[in-house]
Amino acid sequence: MASRSIHLAVIPGDGIGPEVVAEGLKVLDAVAPASGLSFERTSYDLGAARWHRTGETLPDSVLEELRGQDAILLGAVGDPGVPSGVLERGLLLRARFELDHYVNLRPVKLFPGVSTPLAGVDTGDIDMVVVREGTEGPYAGVGGVLRKGTPHEVATQESVNTAYGVERVVRYAFEQAAARPRRKLTLVHKDNVLTFAGDLYQRVLKRVGEEYPQVTTDYCHVDAATMFFVNQPGRFDVVVTDNLFGDIITDIGAAIAGGIGLAASGNINPDGTAPSMFEPVHGSAPDIAGQGKADPTATILSVVMLLDHLGATDAARRVERAVSDDLAERAGQGARTTAQIGDAIAKRVSG
Amino acid sequence: MASRSIHLAVIPGDGIGPEVVAEGLKVLDAVAPASGLSFERTSYDLGAARWHRTGETLPDSVLEELRGQDAILLGAVGDPGVPSGVLERGLLLRARFELDHYVNLRPVKLFPGVSTPLAGVDTGDIDMVVVREGTEGPYAGVGGVLRKGTPHEVATQESVNTAYGVERVVRYAFEQAAARPRRKLTLVHKDNVLTFAGDLYQRVLKRVGEEYPQVTTDYCHVDAATMFFVNQPGRFDVVVTDNLFGDIITDIGAAIAGGIGLAASGNINPDGTAPSMFEPVHGSAPDIAGQGKADPTATILSVVMLLDHLGATDAARRVERAVSDDLAERAGQGARTTAQIGDAIAKRVSG
Ligand SMILES: CC(C)[C@H](C(=O)O)[C@@H](O)C(=O)O
Ligand SMILES: CC(C)[C@H](C(=O)O)[C@@H](O)C(=O)O
């Protein structure tokens, strides 16, 4: 079978980033022969180490190279020596904005055998997808500071929301909902306080919803939504929300679905005008870096999302099943290293 | 013993508001003789019902009357017939802003015998106080909409943060932390993305912290904080955070500490330039209104906060103990009505 060649950019990053990415690539190699895809990988040295060395976060020239790739796999970036915000705004968010990743897709699913901090919750009770807007809202980077360091300082942050930006992410969320058995879409916002932005989301939901009569919609304030994530997670199927609320609720999502070691994400450009970027939700965890303690599962599940995005659906299901089977057997086992988990999943994929 | 006379404004509101307020007042009456306080109550008709009748939310004349009171007890306002935001911005937030309630104080405590949705968590594992800023941030009401209803619509919301506003709430939080056994204060923000506002909070925390060497401080991104609320709630003692993050995390706080039926709050003006306002965190719950199903405990615990605020510490402890004893015995009992719960707690207070 002739295989389609995929140019894959790999950004291992800092801390546990390179360790988990190595396992993600191991699994990708294991499934590639059966996927109809072959991967040409280019590794990019970006993150805290580069910033310490050169002061660069995401140079224009690198950004242009990334644009020429078909997809990006990112580990994690950051270390305590970099001031907060430098890599986040200069690298991660810059990539998401410049590559127009207007969908930040985050499944929240409790796999069989995985333990959750919630009492009385079973597999099947937690199975949702959060569609987080990725290119505007409070993340726009608009704001400033006046009279810094004086008693009269004023610091502002502006959430910028556009009909263009809201409509495209809401439409994507309806498509997701329409393709799932429960066909339910919940808008999460705070329209009783953030009245302008909330009203825009509400009107777009209503208007686009007319094209999807088969999808049930409802609305939940973000504060109530966080509560329901904890005490009624089964209420959610697909959730659409803004950039900041999505950031927050997907971390609770990770917590209830077995922890940050399992949470995958895709920064998606659904129009294909630039490569999409897949990354575990977790950070670089410098405290456990280099010890083989990191769980690569979130990265491997991000590889599943990458495969789905590239249309290699069968390969995606194969890796997902391997992860699911591995998770189901973890309870009985002792601690394994990062590489042992990667090996075990890769073996299931090939086997 | 001569008693100090307190002018108490009561805003029962809508839905279950009047039902839970009645029980709060019942308990207040029961403890008053022993409190050194006597209460002169004035009831204010505000909320959805008034808005439907007159279009008014919080008229200037009523606001002026409220200013003359010593404290306010509020039930809940709102019904599905009022457009989202009208009562929130026009009544609740208007009162908080005009009366300069710069501290929104929300204890998150798991009482003995109360069941939590978290597995393996015991009483004592959850005992924190959230100090939420109440008069600025994303709640400022600054923002607008351009080209509404067109494909070119832009909707903005601005978070406005001042050194003045941040310093006073941070200072209050340090005072709280210094008075508690663990003496720990955690700033919750998102300073890697909301860099201007986050940096202001960080600098103020550091500067004010020099005056409180006995208090340990740390920092947690809001997304990580929500995760820790679920899987390591014992990490938190006092939390200080902005208006929107505080809104969100205190709902998770309510969820983990036994639900919204138990969550109390105080909108506090620590300088005493205007009356403080005490209210349950829950809303008007129109679906269960008038059926005697609402749990008045959150309101009764708000009365505890009211008593503490007025300096009636012994009376506050007495009501708190009564609530705690009542909660400890609930597990074994069948469902009780709103009034039965109020009666039981009032009886313990007097007995
Ligand atoms: C690191 C940070 C900028 C990022 C975000 O806020 O989006 C992270 O928390 C995430 O969720 O991917
Ligand atoms: C009703 C709403 C305006 C309010 C808020 O957002 O502060 C509520 O959620 C609360 O927490 O008291």
TrEMBL record, chains A, B:
Matching PROSITE patterns: IDH_IMDH
Q: Listed GO cellular component terms?
A: cytoplasm
Site feature location: Important for catalysis: 139, 190
Molecular functions per Gene Ontology: 3-isopropylmalate dehydrogenase activity; magnesium ion binding; NAD binding
Associated pathway: Amino-acid biosynthesis; L-leucine biosynthesis; L-leucine from 3-methyl-2-oxobutanoate: step 3/4
Query: Could you tell me what reaction this enzyme catalyses?
Result: (2R,3S)-3-isopropylmalate + NAD(+) = 4-methyl-2-oxopentanoate + CO2 + NADH
Q: Which Gene Ontology terms describe the biological processes this protein takes part in? A: L-leucine biosynthetic process
Task: Determine the domain of life of the protein's source.
Answer: Bacteria
Main localization (coarse): cytoplasm
Q: How is the cofactor bound?
A: Binds 1 Mg(2+) or Mn(2+) ion per subunit.
Enumerate the UniProt keywords alphabetically: Amino-acid biosynthesis, Branched-chain amino acid biosynthesis, Cytoplasm, Leucine biosynthesis, Magnesium, Manganese, Metal-binding, NAD, Oxidoreductase
EC number(s) from the headed UniProt entry: 1.1.1.85
Kindly report, in one word, the top-level EC class recorded for this enzyme. oxidoreductase
Question: SUPFAM superfamilies attached here?
Answer: Isocitrate/Isopropylmalate dehydrogenase-like
Q: Cross-referenced Gene3D superfamilies, in alphabetical order?
A: Isopropylmalate Dehydrogenase (3.40.718.10)
Q: Give the required cofactors.
A: Mn(2+); Mg(2+)
Q: Where in the cell is it found?
A: Cytoplasm
Q: What does this protein do?
A: Catalyzes the oxidation of 3-carboxy-2-hydroxy-4-methylpentanoate (3-isopropylmalate) to 3-carboxy-4-methyl-2-oxopentanoate. The product decarboxylates to 4-methyl-2 oxopentanoate.
State the family it belongs to: Belongs to the isocitrate and isopropylmalate dehydrogenases family. LeuB type 2 subfamily.
Q: How does it assemble?
A: Homodimer.
Q: Which protein are we looking at? A: 3-isopropylmalate dehydrogenase
Species: Actinomadura viridis
